[in-house]
Amino acid sequence: MLAGAIVVPAAGATTVASESELRAAFEDAGEARIDLAARVELHCVGSGGGALQRDSATPLTLNGHGFAVHQTCTEGESNVLLQDGGGALTLKDVTITGGDSEADGGGVLAIGPVTVIRSEIVGNAAVDGAGGGIASDGAVTVIDSSISSNHASQDGGIAAADRITVLRSTISGNEGGGITGAPGPVAVNVTNSTVADNFAAAPSAGIFTEGVTTLVYATVVRNRAQDFPNIDSPALVSFASVVALPLGSERSCLVGSTISHGYNLSDTSRATCGFDAPTDRPSRGDPMLAPLAANGGPTPTMLPLAGSPLLDAIPAAQCRADGAAGVTSDQRGVTRPQGGSCDIGAVEVAVPPPPPPNPIPAALSPAPEPPSNRFRLGAPKRNKRHGTARLRVTVPGPGVLRLVKTKQVRPTRKDVASAGKVNLRVRPRRQARRRLRRRAEVRVRARATYSPEGGEPRTKSRRLTLRLEPKRKRGPR
Fold first, then answer.
1. C-alpha angle 196/198/201, rounded to 5°?
2. Strand partners, 101
3. What is the CA angle 10-12-17, rounded to 5?
4. Does one domain contain both 347 and 381?
5. Residues forming beta bridges with residue 424, ordered by sequence position
6. CA quadruple 31, 37, 41, 45: dihedral positive or negative?
7. Which letter does DSSP use for residue 329 in this model?
8. Among the ranges 109-118, 320-329, 413-422, which has the highest mean pLDDT value?
C-alpha cells in the first residue's frame, strides 16, 4: 500500500489537494503535470458519472506522491481517469481505485499510451466491458507497480491494442484475465514480473494476445480459466521463466511458434510451451512457490520454497544471456545472482550472510500481539431512490475493508487509515436489481471482510432488504 508523502512542488507542476482542484487541472488541455498533496475522493457530477475527463494531445503526468484517487460514484461513466485526446498519460506513485464503469476501463480509459510507475491500479470494475484496471488503444507500460483485484466481463487487468510492457510488476487477482493484447498482433513483454491468481471464463486467465509474448525472468502461475492455459499466444519467446500450475486446464501454454533461450521450467510437457532447449526443465512438477506476499520491494511476489527446482538453476555466466542483458536484479531489486547462481522466475532468493564466529543470542522477548481483526456491522441505512443501502462498519484500526462479490451484491473496497466508522455501499447485481425493479424490494446477504494491516482477515455477513421507491410521474405544467 502506498503511503502519502510531503509534496515539494515541481517546477511547472500544478499541486492539488481537493476534488475540484484535480478536476480543473485534469480537464485543462494544456496541463502537463499534476502533483497530489492529499487523497482525493471523486463524486458524481450531474448525471454524467464521476470520471475525471480529459480531451488533449498534450502528455500529462499525474504524480500521486503516495496518495490515492478514489472513485465513489457508481452512476454513468464512473471510470477514475478518462483520456480521450490521445495524449500520453503517465501515473507515478499513485493508487487508482473504485472505478465503476458500465463499459471499458474501470480504472483508466485512454486512447493514447499509458505508463504506470510505482503505482497501484486496484479494485476497479468495467462491468460490461474490457480492462477493469486499464483499457487503452495505445501502448501500456507498467513498471514497479501492481494491477490487482480489478474486474471486467473480459480482460480484467490490462487490455491494450498496442505493445504491453510489464517490468518488475505484479498482475494478480483480476477477474476477466490478467493481460490481454488485442485486437491485432499486440506484442506482450514481461520481465522480472509475476502474473498469478487471475481468473477468467476464456480465452486465458494469465496472458492472451494475438501477437508475440516474450518472457524474461517471469513467473506465470496459478491462473484459472476453464479448459484454457496460463498463456494463449501465437508465438512465445522465453528465458529463465516459470509457467506452471494452470488451474482449469492440463496445459500451461497454448502457443504456435516458440523460441526458447533456455532455463525455463514448466509442470507440463515441453510441447505445450515449447521449452525444448537443452537447459529447459519441462515436466518438472510443482515449482514450489509460496503464495503472493510482501517480500520486500514495491510489489507482492512469490518466493521459491526450500527445495524448489527454480533455485540455483542458472550458472552465473548465463544469468544475462539471450534477452536478459542488463537484468542485474529481480522483481524486488535483489541482486542477481545470489550465491553464485541465478534462480528461475521473477524472484532471486537472497542468500543470508554467514553468522559471526561467536554469535550472541538475542534477548528473549514475547511475540507481539497480532492486530485485532474484530469489527462490527451496524444497522443499514437504505437509499430507496437508488435501491441501495449503506452499511455502517466499525473497525479497530487501519487496513482494507471489502464488501465481497456475491450473486446478489456487487463488490466494494475501502482503504481504512485509522480506527472508526466506515460506510460500505451495498448495491444489487443484475439478477437482484431486476427483481428489485419488479417487486420494489429484494432480500440480499452482504458479506464484509476486514483485513487489518499485518493481520488475518475476518468476514461477517448481514441480511438486509433493499427497497426502491417508484419514480414519480410529472404532471402537466
1. 145
2. 126
3. 65
4. no
5. 391
6. negative
7. B
8. 109-118
The answer on 254 and 216 residing in a single domain is yes
Residue for cell digits 481537493?
Answer: 18
How much is the average pLDDT of 22-42?
A: 97
| Residue 9 scores a pLDDT above 80 | no
Q: Could you tell me the residue range of the domain that residue 100 belongs to? A: 1-122
Task: Pick the last residue of a domain from 122, 142, 175.
Answer: 122
169 shares a domain with 279? yes
Identity of the residue numbered 107? G
460 and 342 housed in the same domain: no
In terms of phi and psi (left: phi > 0; alpha: psi -120 to 50; beta: otherwise), the region of 76 is left
User: With 0-12 CB in 10 A as exposed, 13-18 as middle and 19+ as buried, what is 148?
Assistant: buried
Tell me the three state secondary structure of residue 239.
Answer: strand
Total count of domains within the chain: 3
> Which residue type occupies 175?
E
What proportion of the chain, given as a percentage, has pLDDT over 70? 94
If one counts every other C-beta atom within 10 angstroms of the C-beta of residue 103, the result is 16
264 Rama class: left (phi>0) / alpha (psi -120 to 50) / beta: beta
Identify the residue with better confidence: 198 or 249: 198
3-state secondary structure 102-160: CCCCCCEEECCCEEEECCEEECCEEEEEECCCEEECCCEEEECCEEECCEEEECCCEEE
Adjacent-strand bridge partners of 41: 70
Please tell me the distance from the alpha carbon of residue 61 to that of residue 63, in angstroms, as a whole number: 6
In DSSP terms, 400 is beta-bridged to 415, 451
Beta-carbon contacts of residue 284 (< 8 Å; ≥ 6 apart): 265, 266, 267, 309
135 — phi, psi (to 5°)? -130, 125
Closest C-alpha to 153, from 132, 181, 184, 178: 132
Contact 43, 20 (CB under 8 A): no
SS3 187: coil
How far is residue 395's CA from residue 269's CA, in Å, rounded to a whole number?
Answer: 49
Residues shown for the chain:
477
Residue 40: all three cell numbers together: 482525493
Looking at the structure, do residues 185 and 78 belong to the same domain, yes or no? no
Question: Of 459, 460, 454, 461, nearest to 372 (Cα)?
Answer: 454
Q: If 0-12 CB within 10 Å is exposed, 13-18 middle and 19+ buried, where does residue 197 land?
A: buried
The answer to the question of residue 137 being in a domain is: no
